[in-house]
Amino acid sequence: MINLEKNDNVFTLTMDDGENRWNTTFVREISKILDEVEASTGAAALVTQSSSPKFFSNGLDLDWVNAPAEHPAAGDYRVFGGEFMALMGRVITLPIPTVCAINGHAFGAGFMFALCHDVRLMREDRGFICANEMQIGLTIPNPELALFRHKLPANTFFETVQLAKRWGGPQALQAGIVQQTTDIDNLAASAFQRAQELAPLGANRANYGGQKERLFGENAILNNSHGAAYHLKHASEQGH
Fold first, then answer.
1. How confident is the model over 34-53, as pLDDT tens digits?
2. Are the C-beta atoms of residues 57 and 15 closer than 8 Å to each other?
3. pTM to 2 decimals?
4. How far apart are CA 188 and CA 10, in angstroms?
5. 225 in a structural domain
6. Which of 26, 34, 171, 200 has the fewest beta carbons under 10 Å from its own?
7. Residue 10, domain member (yes or no)
8. Backbone torsions φ then ψ of 166, nearest 5 degrees
9. Where are the beta strands (DSSP E) in the chain?
10. Residue 226 lies inside a defined structural domain of this protein
């Protein structure tokens, strides 16, 4: 379902479950992999990819959502929401650089997972990323809205969450959702190369992870009621 390899100082997490749809079992398997990654020491980075030629992650396991008793292997539906959101919070603050290689469709929860990475590369010729909740009649929870608002430019944010716009690779690059596009043959290698470049930043886990917490965690500087001028003028009061 989820595989982990390490080459030099780069971990590669590969989702290997068809469309890689999200249920409680899928969440817990990824969490176990992250336990192993975080137990490492020294310079490191993480690449996340999919083995599917068509899908990065196609969102929620809707068959399970609609009839959880018929899919017991997918896990306890009652705890899914909390565990999934907690996992996304863990990924966005992982104390090493994270690179996501989006090789195909990334919808709903799959799009969220991709956005939680520090850097995103996307296949340029096919595949869409989309927050499709509005299309299928679901309400986007506040934590998901907060993630999109922190990670996306304002106009891109509105088109994504309110209009359920589908973004292909070139459009996602132009909109600021991904940082690079490439052909499928070079996607994995490009993601690995970027991870190698960033891995030294992960040597100081406390500093790298700590700044992510200040960006995205409690009392995040991005949400602070005071503007940049206030912080600059009162830097000494803040220990700087």
1. 999 999 999 999 999 999 98
2. yes
3. 0.93
4. 12
5. no
6. 200
7. yes
8. -95, 130
9. 2-7, 10-15, 45-50, 55-57, 98-102, 105-107, 119-123, 129-130, 180-182
10. no
Give the total number of structural domains in the chain: 1
For the chain, how big is the Rg over CA atoms in Å? 18
86 bridge partner residues: none
CA pair distance 34, 146, nearest whole angstrom: 23
CA distance 108 to 156: 15
**Paired tokens of 166:** 């589908």
Q: Tell me how far apart the alpha carbons of residues 14 and 10 are, in angstroms, rounded to a whole number.
A: 13
| Sequence-separated (6 or more) residues with CB below 8 Å from residue 107 | 57, 58, 59, 128, 129, 130, 131, 132
- Structural domain boundaries, residue 33: 2-199
Record the tokens describing residue 42, joined without a space: 């020294």
Residue 221 included in any domain: no
- Which CATH number belongs to the domain containing residue 106 in this structure? 3.90.226.10
